[in-house]
Amino acid sequence: MTNPEQPGTTAVRAAVRSWIAPCAALVLTACTAGASTSASSSPGGTPATDTATTTATTGQADPTRTAATPNTPTGTAPIPTLPPTSGVFDYQLGGTSDTVRLDGATLTIDVVVRDATAEPLPGAYSVCYVNGFQSQPDQADVWLDQPALLLRDAGGTPVVDPDWPDELVLDPSTPAQRDGILAIVGPQIESCADRGFDAVEIDNLDTWTRFDQIPEDGALALAADYVSLAHDLGLAIAQKNAAEVADVGHDDLGFDFAIAEECFAWDECDAYLDAYDGRVLEIEYPDALDDAGTDFGSVCASSHRASLTILRDRDLVSSTSAGYRYDSC
Length: 329
Prior knowledge:
Layout: H1 9-34, E1 89-92, E2 99-102, E3 105-108, E4 111-115, E5 125-131, H2 140-144, E6 160-161, E7 164-168, H3 175-194, E8 199-203, H4 207-210, H5 216-232, E9 236-240, H6 246-253, E10 257-261, H7 269-275, E11 280-284, H8 286-291, H9 296-301, E12 308-312, E13 326-328
Parallel strand pairs: 1-4, 4-5, 5-8, 8-9, 9-10, 10-11, 11-12
Antiparallel strand pairs: 2-3, 6-7, 12-13
């Protein structure tokens, strides 16, 4: 959802750029000096294959693509592999499936996003979902044990997301708070790398647009910490939410690609597509399209969408569950 510009946003972005740019330069220099593989190498050091040759209509994955392998320390950070921009894509946060069903056919998946509690899909580019700015429902107790890391209202009560009332909102305002948050979320990202995921999605970057108590510079600083950790582990990392800072996300923070839910419904796709040179995974939902007065056919007919665009049921259930819905442009 697009939010109005907050006062001082331009100045804050300039400040963020001023301290991130030197750090980025140092990291780039180190990577350039130490890396022995090309930018197209995978975390395991094998050549990465963009599945542009995958035939989406038949669902056949590129036979040269192998299952993801765990990242291993080599003295220098491996260069992340970026997701392909063609093939069969699925978003599987509510339940996993090894294939998708479309028009009576069973298709092999080339790109998939799964929760951090799930395993990567062998043979597919696998993205690990991590909630980096709010708690997951099953982790509330972990965060309640760290009260200084939670956003609180004027009465001192922890703030919850009104749209997701079982999620506590984290407070990245200070360096100490960001360090504390990273100490809890960081191991989740490390686990994604250890289990062979190719990339990580960090959800809810936009909390600073929805909760006035959160400063934009604090949220972006935490995002930069996540990017640095992911890259150190050989993972690519996706920006999620906050389309209004997509350019900052790519150019200054270092996100590699974007995952955009409902960007067509909210007229935000171009912001991500322009910032990430088309490397965007797009998910639309029937209810949001209905509310926007459009439909998935209009999405697919538009030039203002990602090359990998799908329609999913709101609960993202597995293909064998009631309520499953999947369509693709």
